Every structure is written in structure tokens, then in C-alpha cells.
Here is the input.
Amino acid sequence: MGRREREASGPRMTLPTQLVLRALLTEPAHEFYGLQIGQAAGLPSGTVHPILARLEALDWLESRWEDIDPAREGRPRRRYYRLTTDGAERARIALAEARTQVTDLPVLRPRPTGGTA
Here is the structure.
């Protein structure tokens, strides 16, 4: 499959992909680093980072490395991700067309309060 075909079809809309896109769409123009995205999506970094790489390869995201001195800051540099303008629009469309939507899953719905067990 060529790049143009991949771009037209977009990523496979797995539930983790949907969760990542929803996290990014909370503030489409904002930059988030991987751990923030994982926490917002409720997913481990080992799941989030491959999704981010696929979305970036499709030009839905752009990324940059933080410009810090890790020794001075006492932590590794962070890679920041942001939806492109086109990527944000494609993400909205893909989420709207997803067969199994995150909101359809009973485990992700808030449980009713009150009453007795």
C-alpha cells in the first residue's frame, strides 16, 4: 500500500487509537508529551507510542523533542506531539465513523449511583 492510499484510509480505528485521538482532541492545538497522552487515554506507554508513531507517519501529528539539558533538569527530554490541522479534522471524521465507538463500551460508561446492590 502506497503512502497516498494509507493517508486516504487512515489508521486502523482500534479502541486504543480512538482513546489516543480523543485525548489529543481535548485541545487540538496543544502539545502533549507521551505520558500525558497515555494518562488521559488510560493506556500504557507501550500502547500509546506505537499509535503516535503511526499517526505521525500519516501526517496526522507532528512532534518535536523538548529543548532542555537533561542533566540540569534531572529528567530525560520529552517528545511533544500535536495534531496537525488536517490531522485534527481527519481524527474527528474517523472517530465519528468508527464502527465500535469508545462511548459504546459498557466498561467505560459511568456507573449509575444510588440504589442498593
Notes: Strands lie at 32-33, 61-65, 79-83.
